Amino acid sequence: MLPTITIVGRPNVGKSTLFNALTKTRDALVADQPGLTRDRKIGRGRIGGRDYWLIDTGGLSEEGEPILEHITEQALLAVQEADCVLFLVDGRADLSAADESIAQNLRRFNTSIHLVINKTEGLQKEIVSAEFHRLGFGEIHAISAAHRRGIDTLMEKVLSAFPQMPPENSPDGIKVALIGRPNVGKSTLVNRMLGYERVITYDQPGTTRDSIFIPFEREGQLYTLIDTAGVRRRSKVFETIEKFSVIKALQAIEAANVVIMLLDAREGMTDQDANLLGNIVDAGRALVIAVNKWDGLEQSQREQVRYNLSRKLHFIDFAKIHTISALHGSGVGNLFGSVKAAWQAAHRQIKTPRLNKILQDAVMAHPPPLIRGRRVKLRYVHQGGHNPPLFVIHGNQVNSLPGAYKRYLINSFREAFELDGTPIGLDFKQTKNPYEGHKNTLTPRQRKKRQRLMQHVKKKK
Fold first, then answer.
1. For the segment 259-286, what is each residue's pLDDT rounded down to a tens digit?
2. Long-range contacts of range 329-332, CB-CB < 8 Å, 24 or more positions apart?
3. 3-class DSSP state of 72
4. Which PROSITE patterns match (predicted)?
5. What share of the chain is helix, strand, coil (3-state, %, to 5)?
6. Are 358 and 288 in the same domain?
7. Whether residue 87 sits in one domain with residue 68
8. Which of 60, 203, 319, 326 is positioned for an S-S bond with 189, CB 3.0–4.6 A?
9. Is the pLDDT of residue 320 over 50?
10. 40 vs 370, which has greater pLDDT?
């Protein structure tokens, strides 16, 4: 097992900056604003040939806002899960009562604690660390996370307490991103799928700000759930932090294998939901649609919602639609079957002879239309990629093939190979005319014959 290291500290001391430095990523949002990180964020790092898991936490504070109580609870859970804790303090600020309170809380856990002073660039370690010796944690590490100074020395000291482990090969499994507008229940659904309170849920839009990657296993299958920030219409996004959160959510779509699009049954399908679905289809991701808060509707309302969804989702007829209640758990278990089936369909490898047999059958049943008096010819097809499946079709005049016939071919492939849950891409290759650009050279006898014919034509005129 790789060691698990948790970063804790009060708000705005540089925890997320250190997380990005140790994982060599930009996964954690960083801005000059306290309270940006709220949920635990897990990443994997490697320094000096040693691998480790890293957990970023929200800032611990004594203020009485309800959301801060959830943040503190998540941070303390991360300390319980850790093999080691990096207690981060601000070297450019005096020792505060909040630092002393955090230190007192950390001593309750049977976990190795390293006191790390951040933002020490341009300062002498002895002077900066003098005041923090009062916390009583022994050796003090002085670093600058923003400038990547002192980090390697810190991690060598931290990792020396753990035995050397052989490199692990830990695949992420099926990456599943939960996408939707704010307050549709994404974090509640994540907790329900995991079976415990992993991410913060709160009756306030915008509680989740970053994309949270959570690996877990179910019935022998590895998954990585990605909880994302709610995406609102661009005109409704004013805060800079929320703009970054939206970018993270859209990046999560690109990182996922399967996307669960969460809709609110009470509000139905909105224009913003349609925009999000368009982004998912454009990214070529396998898709499962979950209609949440279904338990609170009357039967007549449910029929109305089903009718509206069938009318508005006609352009995504390949996605399985589930009606669920993330709060009470009804229908949530069925999502895993659809997610796995969509992932398998997106990664299916199909042999070329089978593809060509289906193409021939489709052409025989409904021949391509005439273009400028000539029939479009579809000669052969082969698979050009997966996730999503891409089929490359070669033929004549294929660039003029109507969209309706392309959809007919997609439906034929989907039905024949059971490619439900994933979009299908078609790439058409125009067969090159071997005589294009080549002029036929006439023999002397042919030239004389042509001249005689031209004179005959002129006499008739």
1. 999 999 888 888 878 888 888 888 889 9
2. 329/192, 330/294, 330/295, 331/290, 331/294, 332/189, 332/192, 332/193
3. helix
4. G_ENGA (PS51712)
5. 40, 20, 40
6. no
7. yes
8. 326
9. yes
10. 370
320 and 436, same domain (yes or no) = no
Domain assignment present for residue 341? The answer is: yes
Domain count, the chain: 3
Is residue 125 a known part of a binding site? no
Q: Please tell me whether 231 is known to bind a ligand.
A: yes
Whether 19 is in a domain gets the answer yes
24 is an annotated ligand-binding site residue? no
Instruction: Give yes or no: residues 27 and 124 share one domain.
Output: yes
Of 281 and 29, the structure prediction assigns the larger pLDDT to: 281
Q: Is 395 annotated as a binding residue?
A: no
Q: Are 246 and 274 in a shared domain?
A: yes
Q: Is 292 annotated for ligand binding?
A: yes
Residue 446 located in a structural domain:
yes
Q: Is 58 annotated as ligand-binding?
A: yes
- Is 185 labelled as part of a ligand binding site? yes
pTM over 0.90: no
Residue of higher predicted confidence among 322 and 79: 322
Edge-first strand listing for the sheet containing 212-218 = 212-218, 221-227, 174-179, 258-264, 286-292, 320-323
- % residues pLDDT > 90 (the chain): 26
Q: Is the pLDDT of residue 169 over 60?
A: no
421 is in an annotated binding site: no
In a domain, 411, yes or no: yes
In the three-class reduction of DSSP (H, G, I as helix; E, B as strand; rest coil), residue 140 is classed as: strand
Q: Is 9 annotated as a binding residue?
A: yes
14 is an annotated ligand-binding site residue: yes
Last residue of a domain, one of 125, 159, 193: 159
Residues 376 and 323 in one domain: no
**Do the annotations mark residue 295 as ligand-binding?**
yes
Domain that holds residue 386: 347-461
Q: Is 184 annotated as a binding residue?
A: yes
Q: Are residues 36 and 141 in the same domain?
A: yes
Q: What is the pLDDT averaged over residues 145-163?
A: 89
| 12 marked as binding residue | yes
State which of 135, 159, 183 marks the end of a domain. 159
Per the CB < 8 A criterion, the answer to whether 116 and 89 are in contact is: yes
| Together in a domain, 122 and 105 | yes
Annotated ligand binding at 171? The verdict is no
